[in-house]
């Protein structure tokens, strides 16, 4: 144990300088991250933290042990190595595995700094901030309080531990059925309060018996409780957990009927629902967040040589493994989208200037411009591009002339021997200087990006351009380039988007074509998967459907008194992707635990005629299925299947192309 502590201390000491320099570089690059506390942990501790979603204490439940075992086996059998974990908090806490190489540790640190910036500045994370101090999350304290409260219930002799565990199982099964677009904080508004607890509210008012009997009698209360539960087919309740909390009962096996839920049970539901809202932002921004971190990690480690000469090969292997992971890789897709945004923004800046040159229009753009001259003129100032210690005299001259690309304070520190300019040349540059040093269109693989712009894009650019500046030469136009445009735009997008809006807005046909994206789907005719389409619209459509509602089916409450029998009616917002019916049946059993009465689920399945299937196989085409509405009902003992009335089927069918709906043509 003593040797392990000494190793951890040694690793921590070695990383003090990289941590300090990484923060300085991140801020130079325009990032504004939360403070980050770094912790060195061993292999087992890392697996425990991953199982606990990055926190050191969670409520007692078997899911954590299962997650730990899965992570341990994944590591043991070479299916993926855990390099780090960082949580959304202020300050953020990042855990580094002590067995990582020094190069890996530095890669992780730069990656974490970018994550901490995303946590601090993305609006979707801001929605789930700590209730007591909006904008300043205190997740560790919140989760600690929840763990302690649920642990007390588990150990309360008056409460059956199995009942607590069963309730947690039921809530976790529904943890993604919240309305992730509505901040939890909104419930603090008195006008948004639910009336289901109206009896308790009247008790708190201390009204006289006369007033209670003559004004707020049982009939009045029941009428308002019913009103609170009233829903319409056009406006279902998306926050299923909140509805079950407010209107659900508990089923008493001994009495064979629904009874009032114990207060501890409602408290557990509330706590787990709050945690679901906290973790929702991470699920909603996986592509953006991981891509953002991968982008800045790559720039810092590679382009700015944060990885030393003896570490670069190890780092390159590290990043290749991360970006080369199979399947839908959020690191790769996210990083490529951010780079595409940077490139298109920078191209727009360059094209805007070139279209202002006398004699150049969108019609003759490709013929009138010598793009080798453009490429040459976009290259950064040699001093900005290749700073070394031998340039100190010229650096001093630049700051005397107030060149805003250089940081006067850090240049003077380098001149005084307090900064290793050969090792940290970026330290003497400002954000403006760094943006010129790393202007994306000067990179070898992007040098044709300006010349490859389409005539349609040029015409659009010219159409909305104000004729307020003109240049006599290409050289004069390019001397006026704003090199910060790409990074500025990236930060604007980072502040306001989630994965769905990010993909919808920036996954362009040009991006899909240049990165060779395609869709694939299961073939009913052949019984395997096949490429379905390379059309950019289909690629975007499938990705949007995959990321809507965390990639889970969208379920809403349509009626709390179905058929006037006190039954719950849930609806699956059908978007062309059918439910796994076996799993749906299991979920209904969990919902019953929270409703206490029979529960129903509406959905649509696709049925195939055997003859049609056979014909399709012979002709090498996909069969045409028939969409059939069905309703599953669970009464506490068995699941039964029923036909779905046409008006109910219409209510759950999606017809428009939006985040929750069915495309007009599903994957062509």
Automatic annotation (TrEMBL):
It comes from the Archaea. Residues 11-351 form the SpoVR protein-like N-terminal domain. InterPro entries: Spore_V_R, SpoVR-like_C, SpoVR_N. It holds the Pfam family SpoVR. Residues 553-604 form the SpoVR-like C-terminal domain. This is SpoVR family protein.
């Amino acid at each position: 144990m003593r040797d392990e502590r000494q190793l951890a201390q040694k690793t921590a000491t070695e990383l003090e300088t990289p941590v300090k320099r990484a923060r300085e570089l991140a801020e130079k690059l325009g990032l504004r991250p939360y403070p980050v506390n770094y912790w060195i942990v061993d292999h087992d501790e890392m697996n425990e933290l991953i199982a606990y979603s990055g926190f050191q204490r969670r409520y007692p439940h078997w899911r954590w042990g299962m997650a730990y075992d899965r992570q341990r086996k994944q590591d043991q059998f070479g299916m993926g190595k855990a390099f780090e974990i960082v949580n959304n908090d202020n300050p953020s806490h990042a855990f580094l595995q002590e067995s990582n190489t020094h190069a890996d540790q530095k890669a992780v640190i730069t990656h974490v700094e970018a994550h901490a910036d995303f946590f601090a500045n993305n609006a979707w994370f801001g929605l789930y901030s700590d209730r007591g101090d909006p904008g300043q999350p205190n997740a560790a304290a919140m989760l600690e309080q929840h763990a302690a409260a649920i642990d007390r219930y588990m150990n309360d002799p008056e409460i059956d531990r199995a009942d607590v565990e069963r309730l947690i199982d039921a809530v976790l099964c529904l943890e993604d059925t919240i309305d992730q677009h509505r901040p939890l904080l909104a419930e603090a508004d008195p006008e948004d309060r639910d009336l289901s607890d109206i009896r308790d509210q009247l008790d708190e008012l201390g009204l006289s018996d006369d007033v209670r009997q003559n004004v707020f009698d049982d009939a009045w209360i029941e009428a308002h409780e019913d009103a609170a539960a009233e829903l319409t087919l056009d406006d279902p309740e998306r926050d299923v957990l909140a509805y079950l909390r407010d209107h659900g009962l508990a089923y008493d096996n001994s009495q064979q009927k629904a009874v009032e839920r114990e207060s501890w049970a409602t408290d557990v539901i509330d706590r787990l629902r709050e945690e679901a809202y906290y973790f929702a932002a991470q699920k909603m921004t996986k592509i953006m967040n991981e891509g953002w971190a991968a982008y800045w990690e790559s720039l810092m480690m590679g382009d700015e040589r944060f990885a030393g000469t003896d570490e670069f090969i190890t780092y390159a292997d590290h990043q290749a493994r991360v970006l080369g992971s199979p399947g839908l890789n959020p690191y790769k897709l996210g990083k490529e989208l951010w780079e595409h945004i940077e490139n298109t923004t920078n191209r727009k800046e360059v094209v805007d200037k070139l279209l202002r040159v006398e004699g150049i229009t969108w019609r003759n753009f490709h013929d009138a411009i010598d793009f080798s001259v453009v490429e040459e003129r976009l290259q950064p100032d040699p001093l900005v591009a290749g700073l070394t210690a031998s340039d100190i005299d010229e650096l001093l001259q630049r700051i005397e002339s107030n060149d805003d690309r250089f940081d006067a304070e850090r240049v003077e520190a380098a001149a005084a021997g307090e900064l290793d300019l050969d090792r940290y040349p970026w330290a003497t540059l400002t954000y403006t200087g760094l943006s010129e040093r790393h202007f994306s269109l000067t990179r070898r693989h992007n040098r044709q990006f300006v010349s490859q712009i389409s005539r349609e894009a040029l015409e659009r650019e010219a159409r909305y351009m104000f004729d307020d500046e003109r240049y006599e030469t290409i050289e004069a136009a390019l001397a006026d380039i704003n090199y910060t445009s790409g990074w500025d735009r990236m930060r604007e997008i980072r502040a306001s988007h989630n994965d769905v809006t990010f993909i919808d807005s920036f996954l362009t046909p040009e991006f899909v074509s240049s990165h060779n994206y395609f869709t694939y789907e299961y073939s009913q005719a052949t019984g395997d998967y096949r490429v379905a389409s390379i059309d950019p619209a289909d690629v975007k459509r499938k990705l949007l459907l995959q990321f809507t509602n965390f990639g889970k089916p969208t379920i809403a409450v349509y009626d709390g008194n179905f058929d006037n029998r006190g039954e719950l009616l849930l609806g699956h917002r059908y978007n062309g992707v059918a439910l796994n019916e076996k799993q749906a049946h299991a979920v209904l059993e969990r919902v019953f635990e929270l409703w206490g009465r029979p529960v129903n689920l509406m959905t649509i399945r696709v049925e195939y005629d055997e003859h049609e299937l056979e014909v399709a196989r012979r002709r090498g085409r996909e069969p045409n299925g028939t969409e059939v509405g069905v309703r599953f009902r669970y009464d506490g003992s068995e699941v039964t299947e029923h036909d779905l009335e046409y008006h109910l089927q219409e209510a759950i069918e999606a017809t428009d192309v939006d985040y929750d709906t069915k495309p007009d043509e599903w994957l062509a």
